[in-house]
Amino acid sequence: MVMKKIAGLGLSLTLLLSIVACGGTKDSTSSTGTGEAPANSQPKADTKFAISMIDYRYGAIPPQGGKGIEMINEKFNVDFKPQYVVRSDYDAKLSAVIASGEIPDIIITEGADSNFYKWAKQGAFLSLNDYMDNYPSFKLVPENVLKTVTVNNNIYAIQKYLPQNYELTPMIRQDWLDKLGLAMPTSYEELKEVALAFTNKDPDGNGKNDTYGLAMAQNINPSYEMGAYWDYQTWYHKDAEGRLIPGFISDVRKEHVQFLADLYKEGAITKDFAVLNWTEVNTKEFYGGKAGIFIGTPRGMNPTYMQGLVDINPNAKLAPIPPFKAPDDSQGFRNSMGFYGTIMLSSKLEKEPEKVAKILEMIDYGRTFYSIEERVATNTEFDWLNGHEGQGYTIEDGSIRREVDEKGLSPYNYLPDNRMWAPNDEANGYSKEYTVPLLRDVAGQFEKMHAETKHYINPVNAVYSETRAAKGSELDKFLFNEQTKMIFGDKSLEDWDAMVGEWKEKGGEQMIKEVNEALNASGITAEWQ
Q: Which residues contact 438 (CB under 8 A, 6 or more apart)?
């Protein structure tokens, strides 16, 4: 169905989710410190720069001499020399490159991890404050997103686009609700009632006891948080000392685990979820027609999975479940980090502003946003980016079908950033790109729901904690394991405080301390948008 939540920056990185806001930090301590582009930074027409880059790929690597590179060199008057490394080897390779001092002009990483902050403080990267306001796509990056790559008031990375508000949230079989005469749930009490009805009242009408409520895979995924108030990833609640803490250890999470345990006992949650992987829960449980509640998003849904559900039940209907109103009267979901991928420039470029401008021109070009209507061959810029129709891509049923990366036929395969930065989430029009009618319909409903819903800006995303970067995944795994036992009934909820205490001893307490100190030092506060 959807890309599995990725372990790393918190165990799921939900892919995540962008609002229009002003980019650039004004109180820069960079070389010029004026907030204006350095003098004479625009490249001369006859100046040809050699530009090196190191990047990673999960899949196929485009050829060094591909047609796409030729097109880039011709258009931008450069000698572009990208080096690609398979993702599994990339961290070690990049560390060795940085240590050698022979740093390429462009460095690309998956996110702002511990190495990013270490290398930024060591002076490996160029401060970009003086350039941010000069390029249209850079100015679209929200202030709260920029803070993630800001160190000592200097912006050290260009972030790749990810919608801010399109995190995975619950959806439901609307046709099952209709069959049983039930309304869309608006509280956990009503959600429990619906889940039990889906389990016990034959919502698909086949006369068999073969359906249930909530589809779930290992690591309690999804957890069915119906708003930021209940979200285990949000730093929303405070402890007795007034410090923000992760929802994962809050009393609200304890109540939520009890809710899940009650449903599991009644057979309303996937029986063997602790050993079920993400593909299995998608194909066998929800899209296999067994479970009536799962998760969805406008972006990244799997058409093959959805078609599987349609094949089983041609009359299936889906709908997103809107966020519940919380006890503190808040109502809305958590937003994402707002980016996935970072582009840094070598600090050795500080005295080459013309070359910097050329590199940033290339980056900005690849991020240019085109609406659905503009993604056509008659749009010369879009056509060039994708390697020209009939060569680098084709258009089928209104959707772009690009040639595989290993052919290297288009600039899209090579540019440092090829991810369009949309002026807002809705502008992407993701729902219009789907060809399966049911998928197009529910994705459109998700877009409408998120446009009408507030989203919580998770403050932890804007600060850095060494402990969180080093131990976050390990700490999350511990809590997932312990809370899974509680849902199964193998461990009592009375052991909650002991679990939290052990989590703190393993590094959780230090992480809370570091995060709150960073938040206080930066003046960042929790807020909704």
A: 306, 309, 310, 316, 317, 318
Torsions phi, psi for 375 (to 5 deg): -85, 70
Compute the distance between CA of residue 86 and CA of residue 91 in angstroms, rounded to an integer: 10
Strand order in the sheet with 332-334: 332-334, 454-457, 527-528
Residues 6+ apart with CB under 8 A from 75: 384, 411
15 pLDDT exceeds 50? Answer: no
Q: Are 14 and 167 in contact (CB under 8 A)?
A: yes
What are 90's two structure tokens?
A: 């990339």
For residue 155, the cross-strand partners are 150
Instruction: Classify residue 181 by burial, with Cβ atoms within 10 Å: 0-12, 13-18, 19+.
Output: exposed
Query: Which single residue is written with the structure tokens 């002003």?
Result: 22
Alpha carbon 504 to chain centroid distance? 27
Instruction: Judge contact between 226 and 323, C-beta under 8 A.
Output: yes
Q: 356, 127 in Cβ contact below 8 A?
A: no
CA–CA separation, 286 vs 280, rounded Å? 9
Mean pLDDT over the full length of the chain: 91
- Rounded to 5°, the CA angle 6-11-17 comes to 55
Roughly how many angstroms between the first and final C-alpha of the chain, as a whole number?
28
CA separation for the pair 332, 145 (Å, rounded): 19
Structure tokens at 294: 């799962």
Distances (CA, A) of 445 to 212, 286, 293, 452: 24, 19, 16, 11
> Running DSSP on this structure, what letter comes out for residue 217?
B
In which residue are the tokens 């929303």 written?
236
pLDDT (mean) for 121-147: 95
CB neighbour burial string for 299-334, b if at least 16 within 10 angstroms, e if fewer: bbbbeebbebbeeeeeebebbbbbbbebeeebbbbb
| Spatial distance between the Cα atoms of 289 and 210, rounded to a whole number of angstroms | 9
Q: What is the pLDDT of residue 43?
A: 58
Q: For CA atoms 13, 56, 49, 409, give the dihedral sign.
A: negative
The closest alpha carbon to 442, from 453, 459, 430, 451, belongs to: 430
Using the predicted structure, report yes or no on whether residue 39 has a pLDDT greater than 90: no
Confirm whether pTM is higher than 0.90. Answer: no
Residue 34 pLDDT grade (very low, low, confident, very high; cuts 50, 70, 90): very low
